[in-house]
Design brief:
Subunit structure: Part of the FGAM synthase complex composed of 1 PurL, 1 PurQ and 2 PurS subunits.
GO cellular component, one term: cytoplasm
Strand content: 15-25%
Number of domains: 1
Radius of gyration: 16 Å
Number of strands: 11
Bound molecules: glutamine
Active site: 88 (nucleophile), 205, 207
Largest sheet: 9 strands, mixed
Strand order of the largest sheet: 2-1-3-4-11-10-9-6-7
Protein name: Phosphoribosylformylglycinamidine synthase subunit PurQ
GO molecular function, one term: glutaminase activity
Order of helices and strands: EHEEHEHEEEEHEEEH
Length: 235
Amino acid sequence: MAVRFGILVFPGSNCDHDAYHAVKHVAGQEARFIWHKETKLGDVDVVIVPGGFSYGDYLRPGAIARFSPIMQDVIRFAREGGPVIGICNGFQVLCESGLLPGVLLRNASLRFICKYVHVRVEQTDTPFTNALQPGQVLRIPIAHGEGNYFAPKEVLERLEANGQVVFRYCEPDGRITEAANPNGSAHNIAGIVNEQRNVLGMMPHPERCVEALLGSEDGLGIFRSLIRHVAGVSV
Ligand SMILES: NC(=O)CC[C@H](N)C(=O)O
């Protein structure tokens, strides 16, 4: 049975079609778009909050999108344990919604950065990483102006103690260095889960690296993990 992915669409989303292509055409699952003005998600197994510039990033990225009608039902779905993945602008929306702690500040360079980076898989006991290996290094693109993850010291300590840091920017060989951190994120954080582990936010774009033709297939492991989590099958 195919896993049903629901992909939110805000005015200004621009990675919604890439996410659709990844889960539908590459991973062979069901996918449908959900306009932000809808109030119900309907029958979906996984929610994807895609990247882009919702509301033109006015105020702060995600600060307006979080008031979209659909977000109430996303919060309900998450509270009931449904898997939600926010990618890039989606991560920003999830932080603004209070589903994830912390905030994404402007990159330390104050520049928009679009390039391939490496991230290390820190946790594999999540719906998003169960098909990956601990310590595995993924080659994956980033494209953001505000990916500099920040949270107060106590929050960072709690994230680390609970194993909520799922991806960390690293060197190609997996070493965590300052030079490998593209945007100034605290603790080289590229992705985190909530305490219940069913909501993930990540700045890199797994949907942009699911085919060899695109230069990397490393993003596929995240969608394969979700399929395994929901359907119990390895694809
Ligand atoms: N690719 C994206 O989702 C970009 C996210 C956001 N608009 C930023 O620049 O930080």
